[in-house]
Write a structure and sequence with these properties.
This protein is mainly alpha-helical. Helix content is 77%, strand content 4%. It has a two-stranded antiparallel ribbon. A hairpin with a 2-residue loop joins strand 1 and strand 2. Helix 2 crosses helix 3 and helix 4 packs across helix 5. The longest helix has 26 residues. The protein is elongated, with a radius of gyration of 19 Å. The termini are far apart.
Amino acid sequence: GSMAGTKITDLKDAAKDPEMVRAQDDEFARQYWEPSKAAARTAGIRSALGHVILYDTLVQGGMTSVLKKSEERLGGKVGESVKGKEITEQKFLQVFVEERIQRLQSR
């Protein structure tokens, strides 16, 4: 067998190892899930959908800049009032997704 074939087999075997799976899950939680949860808390986002949107954006890249642009566009964070109107989570997430799409299209 070739060297590449051996390495692929080794990787497939490692993927079945419970310790390897746990290590990967822990690393993903540390790098992505925990920071996205903290960002959601800061932004006032409470829903599961909102958490998943931020998490996915962090994994794909650009969460911080998209949050900043969304807050700038709305004039604040979830729960804050601008010109007498409260920024709802639904409205914030709508703007966030629009800003995310714009960011992805401009790459």
